[in-house]
Amino acid sequence: KYMEFDLNDQGDIDLMGLKQMLEKLGMPKTHLEVKKLIAEVTGGSSETISYRDFVTMMLGKRSAVLRM
Questions:
Q1: Rounded CA gap, 51 and 56, in Å?
Q2: Is the pTM of this model over 0.70?
Q3: Per-residue DSSP letter, 1
Q4: Distance (Å, whole) CA 57 – CA 38
Q5: Which of 13, 17, 48, 62 has its CA 20 to 30 A from that of 31?
Q6: pLDDT computed for residue 19 by the predictor
Q7: Backbone phi, psi, residue 64, to 5°
Q8: How many CB atoms lie within 10 A of CB 28?
Q9: For position 8, what pLDDT does the model report?
Q10: CA-CA distances (angstroms) from residue 7 to 10, 17, 45, 63, 68?
């Protein structure tokens, strides 16, 4: 599913890809809300979400899966 929203085929989800994902999940957000979400997930270091950032966002920072 992650790659479905990688609109530029570079391995990361950009703002529009994340916006589409959230809309498909029934959680539409404004452009500004999506931008803030990306900044929160990446710590402000990127304008795109990597797969690892995506997993962190979906599972939470304290998930045991991420410590493997």
A1: 9
A2: yes
A3: -
A4: 9
A5: 62
A6: 94
A7: -65, -25
A8: 12
A9: 84
A10: 8, 6, 20, 27, 29
Average pLDDT, consecutive stretches of 10 residues, N- to C-terminus, the chain (68 residues)? 86 94 93 93 92 85 53
Tokens of 56: 């962190």
CB count in 10 Å sphere of residue 32: 8
What is the 3 state secondary structure string of 10-68?
Answer: CCCECHHHHHHHHHHCCCCCCHHHHHHHHHHHHCCCCCCECHHHHHHHHHCCCCHHHHC
Instruction: Report the pLDDT value the prediction gives residue 27, as an integer from 0 to 100.
Output: 92
Paired tokens of 34: 């999506």
